[in-house]
Amino acid sequence: MQLCPSFLRAKPSIPEMDFAGQIEEVGVDVDPSQGLKPGVDAFGSIPVSEHLKGYGALSEYVVLDSRHVCIVAKGMEMPELAGLPIAGCTALCLAEKADLRHGQKILVNGAAGGVGSLMTQMVRNAVGEEGRVVAVCSREKEQLVRELGAQEVFDHRTPVPVHKLLAERYAGDKFDTIIDAYGVQSLFDNCAAFLKESGSYITVGVAFDHYTYTSMLLAVSRMLRNVLWPRLLGGTPRRYIQVASVCTLDGLQKLKDLCEDGKLRVPIDSIWDFENVPDVGTPEVCGEALDVR
To answer: Which ranges carry the Enoyl reductase (ER) domain (predicted)?
Structure first.
């Protein structure tokens, strides 16, 4: 939303889209089967169309269509729920495109982030004990990522580029699929050395170098090149799939079920009081954050 032109956004605009809280009132047309009623805890996400009108989650009250609200998962706390909707639905979309199967060997890049931490758990659940989950994250997050299901972890901050380390380690035993939850262009450019020819590179897109229009255009050009540039002209000889996730009620319910079954949890970096929200956006806070709520 930072890159959305100002003339397309209402002013003033309230930040953020994901939320969790207690229901105050329910409209007469809401389907009773959803279980939404006053006093019930719920979570969800404000759709982009409403966010552009100035509505945001960092407010005392949120009003929106019941299609974007789901009752809470049993045993979950509000901070976890507030970090689940968009990241969780994105992870579900990545998992669907990856067509994960028992016994596969999967690489997850950005495994400690909001999407990646959920993705790592989904991959572990899908490939089972006979499968292998390899993760890329910072050294500081290695223990967490191992707890989430990774059996081997590569530090992306090492002097040697991580794609070279992966090529050395897995050239003779390549991955079935690579899931990039961050969007590292160099990883895709060099993935043929450690991704099977039949494998796919599933990603959230190309990460922006900076939050500027120039960086956005550069990222878009890279995405198009990844999809369209033919192998005969030097394109990466692996299938590139980029997901465009939308937070839906069906997705929220799937996430709720996974949490209730004990197959998914939301790692929380820190919790901030409402009045201290302006400080959350500082680099000192967000630089290594998983989910700040």
So the answer is: 21-280
Query: What is the Cα–Cα distance from 257 to 73, expressed in whole angstroms?
Result: 7
Comparing 20-24, 59-63, 92-96, 204-208, which segment has the lowest mean pLDDT?
Answer: 204-208
Q: How far apart are CA 248 and CA 275, in angstroms?
A: 30
What top-level class would CATH report for the domain 6-85+247-286? Answer: alpha beta
CATH superfamily of 87-242: NAD(P)-binding Rossmann-like Domain (3.40.50.720)
For residues 219 and 80, which has the higher predicted lDDT (pLDDT)?
A: 80
**Mapping DSSP to helix (H, G, I), strand (E, B) and coil, where does residue 248 land?**
coil
Angle at 173 between CA 172 and CA 179, to 5 degrees: 125
Report CA-CA distances (Å) from 41 to 80, 270, 280.
13, 21, 25
> Euclidean distance between the first and final Cα of the chain, in Å?
19
The 3-class SS string of 90-144 reads HHHHHHHHHCCCCCCEEEEECCCCHHHHHHHHHHHHHHCCCCEEEEEECHHHHHH
- Quote the Cα angle for 117-20-274, to 5°: 95
The pLDDT tens digits of the residues spanning 28-38 come to: 999 999 999 99
Q: With residue 153 as reference, give the H or E element that holds it.
A: strand 152-155
**Range 269-277 average pLDDT:** 83
Give Cα separations from 35 to 119, 194, 226, 254 (angstroms): 28, 47, 44, 16
Q: Output the pLDDT for position 288.
A: 47
